[in-house]
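Running this now, will post back.
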Amino acid sequence: MREGIRLGLDVGSVRIGVAASDPEGILATPVRTVPRDDGTEIDPLDEDLVQILTLIRELSVLEVVVGWPLGLNGAQGASAHFARSYAQAIAVAAPTVSVRLLDERFTSVDAQRALRDSGVRARDQRGVVDQAAAVLILQSALDSERRSGQTPGRDLRARKPRTPRTKGNDR
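Update: finished.
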């Protein structure tokens, strides 16, 4: 298991849940909920992105794991495209930090259920459900890496292999 603090993000159009791991990469804990400046566009000057980048710098983060809400069939809907765009904005603004997308189907539902089961009323969940989802995303990544020895999710910096040009496909 690689040593270093990881940040987990549950990116939504209204709020971003943030979780962090311990330096050994064993346990994810909630950090905060960051309100989004604007639900549609991502701007490097947005206060929410500035707050995330400040956390990355202050905690000397090794890796950022962004929840990627794919559909049940694995397709990218609007939320998945937005999360990917947000992750790419982080990757551009923090080029020395690994940024990964992790399939997060059902984490918000699981977070709401866990909060409800622990006695948090539905109307009191709004401020913490995003943090709880970020914890689930990050803990899933930590557990997966510990089990397999492989970094989980999709690395945004990984390049796709180029297809060699041969006769017939050189257009």
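Residues 161-166 have pLDDT under 50 and may be disordered. More later if anyone needs it.
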